[in-house]
Amino acid sequence: VLYRIAGSPEVEGTAGFSDVSENAYYYKAIVWAVANGIAKGHVDGTFRPYEDISRQDLAVFFFRFAQYQEYDVSGRTDLSKYEDSSAISAYALDAVQWAVNAGLINGVSSTSLAPKTSATRGTIAVVSHRYCTTLGN
Question: Which residues pair with 118 in a beta bridge?
Fold first, then answer.
């Protein structure tokens, strides 16, 4: 999604993951995302392209993409009103605080963010639309 928002730019190099084939339809997108610091893969050297993405990881990808596009990502929201805010992984905290502040991600209820649950296709579509309309793409 982010690769397409960026205009599907030409890429050079390789994805470098043992589970990503050069013949995969998403190969160029992964090469681009890794080259631009948007995706990093897992510590075991895999990308896991068919694994569901969590809501917190969705925030991380959009946060890194906003940095790539040189948008101001300094805004943060206090997440203490969400009972599950302590469940947000340390690596994702800034991104989730920013995404909530930017209006990209809302709680699944008034007291829950559900950061580690899978993001649905609908959620990804809504966040993508909000990103494009809010940040001016």
Answer: 54
Which whole number is the average pLDDT over 47-74? Answer: 96
Q: Hey, which residues does 112 pair with through a beta bridge?
A: 109
Full 3-state SS string of the chain: CHHHHCCCCCCCCCCCCCCCCCCCCCHHHHHHHHHCCCCCCCCCCCCCCCCCCEHHHHHHHHHHHHHHCCCCCCCCCCCCCCCCHHHCCHHHHHHHHHHHHCCCCCCCECCECCCCCECCHHHHHHHHHHHHHHCCC
Half-sphere exposure of 80 (CA within 13 A, CB side): 1
73 exposed, middle or buried (CB, 10 Å; 0-12, 13-18, 19+)? buried
Model pTM? 0.92
Q: What percent of the chain has pLDDT over 70?
A: 99
Residues 20-49, mean pLDDT to the nearest whole number: 94
Nearest-angstrom CA–CA distance, 54 and 128? 15
Check: CB of residue 116 under 8 Å from CB of residue 55: yes
Largest Cα–Cα distance in the chain?
45
